[in-house]
Inverse folding.
């Protein structure tokens, strides 16, 4: 019956995603352990251990491997499994529901034996980082040293050298490292949003339109009135100036006299301007220009 249950569990592994597969496999191994099928459970756990990537997953697998090894009387292998768990995470503590008093005592003994060595190595690594001015790594390392020294299982060892000396040094270096860690770089000031100027939406603009700059004169020579004038006369010419500043259309809005109107229209055809613009974009512009002929003596 045990072999059949194990075979069913293995068949299910092929059909489920990897993360779920690991959880289901561990659950199946626990079930086998609970039914006293220690060899079968250990076989499954050994296979899971070779594929486990996350630390917490490996810790759970190795804890149940330890339980199976203890149940099978393989004490030395169980001790090595406990050492692997503590080396991976010196502060790891299994749930009281998972371990017997005997196994808790084995973990305590292993911590008393291993933590002083682990802490001394952590201190040496943190001090080396400090000497290399890697203050962020040093601060993290000294914090791990202080956490390990606070473990209640080694409380009596911490009050005597070398751990008592390490506690004094690590505490000072930790505070110093924190002050020397450079502040994180300031977040870049977000660039102001680019506001696109409104694009021309009409085919022709005039002097009354907002944001429109009127054409600037490049050449606008008004012909001289031929003949005598006995009164002041004002006429008006209307021009359409395109996006290149060229006069593309002209007309008389207010006549001076038919003959001069024709001369004026011929001259206006050659006038040239800087084009009108709307928010910097050239546009076609309607320009009205007053022409005044002053009176002369008879």
């Amino acid at each position: 019956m045990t072999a059949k249950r194990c075979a069913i569990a293995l068949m299910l592994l092929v059909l489920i995603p990897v993360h779920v597969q690991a959880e289901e496999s561990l659950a199946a191994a626990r079930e086998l352990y609970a039914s006293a099928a220690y060899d079968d459970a250990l076989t499954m756990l050994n296979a899971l251990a070779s594929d486990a990537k996350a630390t917490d997953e490996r810790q759970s697998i190795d804890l149940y491997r330890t339980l199976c090894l203890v149940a099978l009387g393989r004490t030395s292998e169980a001790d090595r499994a406990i050492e692997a768990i503590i080396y991976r995470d010196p502060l790891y503590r299994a749930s009281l529901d998972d371990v017997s008093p005997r196994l808790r005592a084995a973990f305590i003994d292993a911590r008393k034996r291993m933590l002083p060595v682990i802490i001394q190595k952590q201190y040496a690594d943190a001090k080396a980082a400090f000497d290399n001015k890697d203050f962020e790594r040093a601060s993290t390392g000294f914090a791990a040293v202080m956490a390990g020294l606070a473990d209640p299982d080694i409380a009596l060892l911490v009050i005597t050298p070398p751990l008592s000396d390490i506690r004094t040094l690590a505490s000072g270096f930790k505070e110093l490292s924190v002050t020397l860690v450079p502040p994180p770089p300031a977040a870049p000031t977000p660039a102001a949003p680019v506001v696109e100027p409104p694009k021309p939406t009409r085919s022709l603009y005039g002097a009354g339109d907002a944001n429109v700059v009127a054409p600037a004169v490049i050449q606008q020579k008004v012909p001289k009135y031929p003949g005598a004038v006995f009164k002041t006369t004002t006429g008006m010419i209307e021009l359409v100036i395109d996006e290149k500043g060229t006069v593309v259309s002209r007309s008389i809005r207010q006549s001076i006299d038919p003959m001069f109107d024709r001369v004026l229209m011929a001259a206006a055809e050659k006038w040239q301007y800087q084009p009108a613009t709307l928010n910097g974009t050239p546009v076609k512009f309607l320009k009205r220009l007053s022409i005044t002929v002053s009176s002369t003596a008879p």
Q: What stands out?
A: The mean pLDDT is 84. The two ends are 137 Å apart (CA to CA).
